[in-house]
Structure formats: structure tokens, C-alpha cells
Design a protein that fits this description.
This protein is of the alpha/beta class and about 160 residues long. The protein is about 25% helix and about 25% strand. About 35% of the residues are buried.
């Protein structure tokens, strides 16, 4: 279920984020320039928040809402799928870092998956990649062990960016 940034909410156990048909006249890729799209679903003990488009000061409230609401019964992790995120500024970065702290206080892990190269660079330049656990994609994140909170083991080379098609 895709939601605009202002309508983020729990979509339950619906299909994979981004699987919605392109039937409402959206441009290829599904996102209009400057728009942030959010889909939220639950997979067992994991809340998956899929983020697409551009995350900046003007669009940040939807992500802030999607990442809030802790504690939640049976929730062990929040996984933020960044595979469709084309842009993230300091506001978006701060929301992710704040959400990580809030999750940690609630006994929940916040992890990221599938960032594109530009977003990986933002994390590396700011040092956020040293405190955020980043996985190459959602599938690997869901099968990863439940090690201690913090950066994913990436062989010492930093987070892995998703390859653009």
C-alpha cells in the first residue's frame, strides 16, 4: 500500500512495498519529482517502512509518523527500505538517527536496507554509517541474524549501495 508522506500509517500485512500497479497515471518509477511516498507493512516482529522519492524538510513529516508509535506489541525491529529513495537531506538523516534512538529506548532495533549510492554517500560523509545498521536489501535484512544493534557487518568497507537498474 502506497501512501503520500502525510498519510503514513500501518498497512498491515499487505504485499511487498512497491508492488502496487502503476494504474493512477503516475510517471515511470511511480514518483513525481519532490514527492515522498511511504508504505508500511508488518512481517511478523518486523515493521517494514518503504520510502521512495525525495526525503527533505518539506516531506519529512510522513516518515516521522511512520517511524513513531513505539512500543508496539511483538515488535522487535523496524526496517526502513530505502531502495526507492532518490534523495535525502539532513532533515531525513536526522529523522532516521532520532528514530534509531527512540527505537533503542523502546527495546526495538531500527535498521536500513537497500540505499542508493547517493544516500550511502550521505551516511558515509556524516558518519551515520557507523551507528546505523545498513543491509544491501530487504531480503538480506530479514534473514540477517539478530546481532547487537549497530552497523551491519559489511566486511570493513562500509554499507553496500543497491545497484541502480
Amino acid at each position: 500500500m502506497h501512501l503520500s508522506a502525510g498519510d503514513a500509517g500501518d498497512a498491515g500485512d499487505e504485499g511487498a512495498a512497491g508492488a502496487a500497479a502503476d494504474t493512477d497515471g503516475e510517471p515511470p518509477g511511480g514518483y513525481r519529482p519532490g514527492e515522498l511516498r511511504i508504505a508500511v507493512r508488518r512481517s511478523g516482529p518486523v515493521r517494514i517502512v518503504s520510502v521512495g522519492g525525495e526525503l527533505d524538510h518539506d516531506s519529512a513529516d510522513g516518515l516521522r509518523t511512520a517511524l513513531s508509535g513505539l512500543p508496539e506489541d511483538g515488535l522487535a525491529r523496524i526496517l526502513v527500505d530505502l531502495a526507492e529513495l532518490s534523495f535525502c537531506d539532513s532533515t531525513g538523516l536526522n529523522i532516521l538517527l532520532r528514530a534509531r534512538l527512540d527505537a533503542e529506548l523502546a527495546g526495538v532495533r531500527l535498521e536500513l536496507a537497500g540505499p542508493r549510492p547517493a544516500v550511502v554517500r550521505l551516511f558515509a560523509v556524516t558518519g551515520a554509517d557507523t551507528v546505523l545498521r545498513i543491509h544491501p536489501d530487504v531480503e538480506l535484512a530479514l534473514t540477517a541474524d539478530d546481532g547487537p544493534p549497530g552497523p551491519a557487518d559489511s566486511g570493513g568497507s562500509g554499507p553496500t549501495a543497491r545497484e541502480d537498474p
